[in-house]
Predict the structure.
Amino acid sequence: MLPQEIIRHKRDKKQLSRAEIEDFINGMCQHKVSDEQVAAMTMAIFLNGLTPQETIDLTLAMRNSGEVLSWKGFNKPIVDKHSSGGVGDKVSLMLAPILAACDVYVPMIAGRGLGHTGGTIDKLESIPNYNTAANTDLFQQVVKNIGCAIIGQTGNLAPADKKIYAVRDVCATVESIPLITASILSKKLAAGLQYLVMDLKCGNGAFMSNFADAKALAESIVAVANGAGTKTAAILTDMNQVLGNAVGNALEIKEALAYLQQKNIDPRLDKITRALCADLLCRCGRCNSEEEATKVIDSSLSSGRALEKFAQMAAALGAPTDFVEKADAYLPQSLHQKPIFAEGEGFVAAMDTRAIGLSIIELGGGRTVPNQPLDLATGYTDFVQIGAKVDVKTPLAIVHYQTEEQYEKAATVFNKAIIISDTQPTIKSPIMHKVT
């Protein structure tokens, strides 16, 4: 089938058949469809949309463009979670070992930082010798032996997605819900998952700042994933403030380890992590109710099993065997740490979370160009939360930095990004909505 005819059908608002979609994706992977034709197709989809069935067919065609992992012989549920990205979002670092300690398999393929949001893989690379580029054999071996493994995307998983995304990024078609859905799910379905929960961030620090848009994307992902055979739910979570006490690669590893040790627990981070874990435990049949799931999660943490799973996973992927016990000695540390103080008295009423995320880039902890080496030590700890009472002696955060210029830039951002009011704001739940 000629690619220009398939494009014309979508341009004219006709529904594409599965055969047309598969022909187009296969032709693209075989270099029989040009970048110009891919751009034309993505614009036609952006303008005219896709039906649920078209989105399912596109997702599966993209999934099938490369390797699809098989978990044959694995006798426990295969589960995972995916986050749309946020500032201070280190949930994956706790969720995977918690669930592994709850007797399910968690093969997690995570990403790097994107724009103002941090990436799980960048954080894990703070750990000396941790192999985020493990091959499929090692990945599956670690999952089987330990229960969880977190690595980066391999080149063999959903290569069609990389091709389409590169074109979307430069031709103003990134914000298409069907294309976002297919991009996310093609990679997740290629991992061979049976059960998935989406953590869809919504707020001024998320890619979806509008609740209606976030809800529409959640509904699309849930419908398509379930239609493709992976039992899926989505939880919309608040990203109008930094998640947790720390922001920055190595600093978030430290917070995750403290959480697994049940120390210095941030209530919002705890609630989101538990909600995602409980959904998967109930959805896969490991637990029969949220109450039962809560008890199982509590036991995995209080017994130390979840922390042990993290230590075992890290060691199996190359990290020092005593990393958890001596994390402070192994993780990179900045030359300087100094607080930024509030400029007035009152309550923290709001924050520009995106601006705070971008300030991590100024500290060297995020990228301005692809493949840029990161300063994994920089960032913030002891981050103030909305609702906190502050005065001029209250630190808004501790900055971990290398040069005084970096500190001054961070202080300038904070003075604009943290809004202090005379009135204490209403504290909202970090769980905004659930789509099943």
Q: What stands out?
A: The mean pLDDT is 95.
